[in-house]
């Protein structure tokens, strides 16, 4: 549960950013986009994504006494879906630019849209590309993969959604464009791609420090193996922290709504870890 001071701090940060980017909205509104986004963040970090509980909380404790009902709130959240990603990127730029963060970690985790036995009845997505396999858990799932990048301290600074069947190495190519020059990014062997590794180093000046397989042509030293393993444990902790925010099942009517809820879980953890 977010404390009062942190809720106020998050609101001030969001509101200042929206003013800084000259975000326009209808002046006749009684509830601003900043208040809508704040309530959504509170929902994702304190109420397992339950909007009704967050709305009641914000009203009851006087944070936003005139907060909208659930139906109107959901419509407003969908309208600011792209804005959520923009806000996340702006907060991330603080770590990449002002903090001069140069070490990053990437990993993915699956989020099922529905149970395997209900795939045929799933209305949100319908395609084989959404059926993926999790090697660490040795099971199949039907949903999306969240490609997550964090700082060495475990703060999310980039993410990307892919269909469950998409290989991790393909997603890495899109992620490296979000990193500053001379940065290093650590990942497990699923991201191993020698061509991309050479391209990133030569064209982007970004160093891919991916764990090598036992039969790899480029072998890691014992010291390199220890370094990569140590960094990977940090992002595993962050992924665990994100999953703790999830409800038993993430309810959504559309794929867009499902991805907005996932975005809020990642964004909520970023703000919670960033603001002291």
Give a topology summary.
Elements: H1 4-20, H2 33-46, H3 51-60, H4 70-79, H5 81-98, E1 103-114, E2 131-134, E3 139-151, E4 156-163, H6 168-175, E5 184-187, H7 194-204, E6 207-210, H8 222-244, H9 255-274
Parallel strand pairs: 1-5, 5-6
Antiparallel strand pairs: 1-3, 2-3, 3-4
Helix pairs in contact: 1-2, 2-3, 2-9, 5-9
Task: Characterise this structure.
This protein is an alpha/beta fold and 276 residues long. Helices cover 47% and strands 16% of the residues. The protein has 9 helices and 6 strands, in the order αααααββββαβαβαα. It has helices at 4-20, 33-46, 51-60, 70-79, 81-98, 168-175, 194-204, 222-244, 255-274, and strands spanning 103-114, 131-134, 139-151, 156-163, 184-187, 207-210. Strands 1, 2, 3, 4, 5 and 6 form a 6-stranded mixed beta sheet that branches. Helix 7 links the parallel strand 5 and strand 6 (207-210). Helix 1 (4-20) packs across helix 2 (33-46). The mean pLDDT is 91.
